[in-house]
């Protein structure tokens, strides 16, 4: 508890709000690539974009403490703000409720919500599905309505120890990927100023190469004491493994291989 929150290794989940994604969900219309995949290979596209199989509540109960979420505007729904990944997957209100329910039952747990991607204005031809200023105001209000008693105020800073946080009533830090909006309120942190995102943009077919690249990144940028480090790798099947899966002969499922990769990296 005397360690700084920044010094802890926190298990995280990528696109945490995609667990409900199924064949009935709509793609975001202005995503041209998703629209093409949706018309030709929807079943495959759904499997590709569903990053989690557990609900947010179950992810938290399994030990996840760093949740990344993409936020989309869904004007065809009474709940305008949704999570997703090219598809509308779950109203954001439901995700925040699961977080609140978990914190109500587990009063000494700390959670980071990383709103790491918005569908911003200018990303679609008519702005219909983008995050306008009004949508940002609605999002901040939704955060306060569901998590107000747990939101860590930005003026507490990033350098507090776990013990210092637990001595307050606050339990949730929100990273917001719009610096100007984040600075307009005290209930969220600017993601750009608070997170060093070390997501792997290179492709690797060998676990040892991946581990070596991560080591190089950490060594090159160490120490970074004023922000959280996010290590984010997406495990994706090769064309060969997809063909083996379709026609038989696949020795290991992608889930089994993911477990192997995780064990190697953590070891």
UniProtKB/TrEMBL annotation:
<dbReference type="GO" id="GO:0006629">
    <property type="term" value="P:lipid metabolic process"/>
</dbReference>
<dbReference type="Pfam" id="PF26146">
    <property type="entry name" value="PI-PLC_X"/>
</dbReference>
<protein>
    <submittedName>
        <fullName>Uncharacterized protein</fullName>
    </submittedName>
</protein>
<dbReference type="InterPro" id="IPR051057">
    <property type="entry name" value="PI-PLC_domain"/>
</dbReference>
<dbReference type="GO" id="GO:0008081">
    <property type="term" value="F:phosphoric diester hydrolase activity"/>
</dbReference>
<dbReference type="InterPro" id="IPR017946">
    <property type="entry name" value="PLC-like_Pdiesterase_TIM-brl"/>
</dbReference>
């Amino acid at each position: 508890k005397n360690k700084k929150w920044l010094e802890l290794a926190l298990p995280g989940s990528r696109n945490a709000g995609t667990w409900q994604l199924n064949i009935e969900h709509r793609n975001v219309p202005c995503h041209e690539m998703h629209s093409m995949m949706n018309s030709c290979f929807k079943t495959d596209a759904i499997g590709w974009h569903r990053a989690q199989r557990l609900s947010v509540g179950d992810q938290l109960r399994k030990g996840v403490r760093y949740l990344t979420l993409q936020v989309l505007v869904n004007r065809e729904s009474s709940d305008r703000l949704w999570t997703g990944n090219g598809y509308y997957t779950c109203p954001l209100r439901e995700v925040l409720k699961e977080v609140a329910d978990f914190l109500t039952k587990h009063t000494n747990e700390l959670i980071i919500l990383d709103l790491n991607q918005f569908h911003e204005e200018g990303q679609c031809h008519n702005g219909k599905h983008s995050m306008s200023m009004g949508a940002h105001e609605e999002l901040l209000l939704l955060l306060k309505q569901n998590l107000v008693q747990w939101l860590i105020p930005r003026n507490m800073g990033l350098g507090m120890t776990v013990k210092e946080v637990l001595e307050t009533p606050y339990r949730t830090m929100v990273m917001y990927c719009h610096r100007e909006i984040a600075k307009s309120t005290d209930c969220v942190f600017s993601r750009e100023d608070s997170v060093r995102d070390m997501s792997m943009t290179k492709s690797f077919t060998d676990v040892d190469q991946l581990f070596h690249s991560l080591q190089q990144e950490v060594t090159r940028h160490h120490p970074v004491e004023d922000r959280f480090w996010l290590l984010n790798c997406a495990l994706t099947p090769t064309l060969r493994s997809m063909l083996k899966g379709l026609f038989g002969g696949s020795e290991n499922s992608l889930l089994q291989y993911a477990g192997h990769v995780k064990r190697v990296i953590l070891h």
